[in-house]
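Duplicate of #3305? Posting structure anyway:
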């Protein structure tokens, strides 16, 4: 005979017991300063539901006992968080719909401390799946807390993955300056940190200055010898992990040289020889963080290429093979803007990325052709009225602004890409059209517009094939 389980009525009865608590024998005071609250509970239920309370009550960990009442104080757990915990202990019910991200993180820490394993796993997974926006805005705070929790590797990995994918947003966050030293060092040691080395150096210097108490100003020209000495002590563990040989001579002169006093003398001499005399480095040369082979482009930098690769191989296919190269197929200023020449350069070359620099603007726009132009029948673009459509779901278009501000728009409906003799590019039903000089962007087939205006004039255009190394 099949069992019948009356969990709902059981949960309701225990909820009533918690609310009435006439025969309670435990008082738990949580919070600190003016934000405190007392909760009444029953030792038998606490023992049964929490290994922490079972051990504490068995070994008299309680802070005090008065008139047969057991007293606990937990100043490190806030009242809102403990209210969620005590309800879960009594009823098995947890509702996080209107709970702040900060309190959910506090709940994670408290459930770990109270050895509520089921609750801990649920809250950890909830943060990753439902609170991604809050996590990404508070990565410094979250990492500082979860790095101390042995059972929280999954959430730590999520945080690191977010930083590796978009390090700039992390480094310019308001609380970056208080990032824990060991966490920052762990990040710098990773090759997966996709960032230009000179940008990483800038962030490291700003962090180091904020961490060095004797430095009262940001102007390096006003630093004293004591300031440099103290900054050297702060940054000493980090220096060996900086890829100085990846930094251009111009950036070295403007951004590294002013801090030469914090560099070890052998390293500094080696860098000068490398940059001026082009000698082979004597120090170990670490592999590039950005494993992207990008030929000289007139439009994008290697960081742009890395972000595009992330979109192609991580967001679309889940792959984490970052060792690829861009091979230049076409450049407008070099090859001209004749449509027949364009197709002869890009046809049958596999997946490709097109980038366009908008005239008199910092904006860069483009798209990823996930199918490649090899689907375009040879010479058919010369036939009047010929039009071929391609609906590969991995097509996307994008834009970059100042400071690498980015926007990606995925193909969602309609037509993903057209090939015909009228336009060099035609993503979607008007989402990105370019005839060789002039273009337009009217959102239709992709999920968001990539420009705040509709029409543009191009300064330059390049097409690259995407090739695994």
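Output from current build:
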């Amino acid at each position: 005979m099949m069992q019948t389980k009356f969990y709902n009525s059981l949960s309701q009865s225990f909820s009533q017991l918690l609310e009435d608590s006439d025969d309670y024998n435990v008082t738990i005071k949580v919070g600190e300063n003016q934000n405190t609250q007392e909760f009444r509970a029953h030792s038998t239920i606490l023992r049964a539901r929490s290994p922490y309370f079972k051990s504490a009550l068995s070994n008299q960990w309680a802070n005090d006992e008065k008139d047969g009442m057991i007293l606990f104080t937990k100043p490190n757990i806030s009242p809102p968080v403990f209210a969620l915990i005590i309800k879960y202990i009594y009823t098995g019910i947890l509702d996080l719909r209107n709970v702040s991200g900060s309190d959910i993180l506090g709940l994670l820490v408290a459930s770990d401390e109270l050895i509520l394993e089921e609750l801990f796993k649920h809250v950890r997974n909830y943060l990753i799946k439902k609170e991604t926006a809050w996590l990404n805005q508070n990565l410094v705070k979250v990492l500082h807390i979860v790095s101390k929790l042995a059972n929280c590797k999954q959430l730590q990995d999520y945080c690191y993955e977010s930083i590796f994918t978009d390090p700039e947003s992390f480094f310019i966050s308001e609380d970056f300056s208080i990032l824990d030293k060991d966490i920052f060092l762990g990040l710098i040691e990773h090759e997966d940190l996709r960032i230009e080395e000179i940008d990483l150096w800038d962030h490291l210097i700003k962090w180091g200055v904020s961490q060095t108490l004797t430095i009262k100003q940001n102007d390096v020209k006003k630093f004293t010898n004591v300031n440099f000495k103290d900054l050297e002590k702060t940054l000493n563990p980090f220096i060996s992990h900086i890829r100085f040989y990846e930094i251009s001579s111009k950036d070295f002169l403007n951004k590294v040289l002013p801090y030469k006093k914090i560099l070890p003398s052998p390293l500094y001499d080696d860098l000068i020889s490398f940059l001026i005399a082009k000698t082979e480095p004597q120090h170990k040369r670490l592999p590039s963080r950005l494993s992207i082979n990008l030929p000289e482009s007139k439009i994008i930098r290697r960081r742009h290429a890395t972000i595009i690769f992330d979109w192609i191989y991580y967001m679309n296919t889940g792959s984490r093979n970052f060792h690829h190269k861009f091979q230049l197929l076409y450049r407008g200023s070099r090859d001209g803007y004749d449509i027949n020449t364009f197709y002869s350069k890009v046809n049958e070359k596999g997946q490709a990325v097109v980038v366009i620099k908008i005239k008199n603007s910092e904006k860069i726009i483009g798209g990823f052709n996930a199918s490649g132009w090899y689907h375009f029948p040879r010479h058919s673009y010369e036939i009047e009225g010929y039009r071929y459509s391609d609906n590969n779901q991995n097509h996307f278009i994008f834009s970059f602004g100042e400071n690498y501000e980015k926007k990606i728009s995925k193909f969602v409906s309609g037509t993903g890409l057209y090939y015909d003799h009228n336009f060099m590019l035609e993503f979607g039903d008007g989402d990105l059209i370019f005839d060789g000089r002039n273009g337009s962007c009217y959102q239709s087939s992709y999920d968001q517009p990539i420009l705040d205006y509709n029409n543009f004039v191009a300064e330059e255009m390049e097409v690259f094939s995407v090739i695994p190394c």
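Confirmed duplicate; merging threads. The radius of gyration is 29 Å. The chain has three domains: 7-140, 170-277, 292-468.
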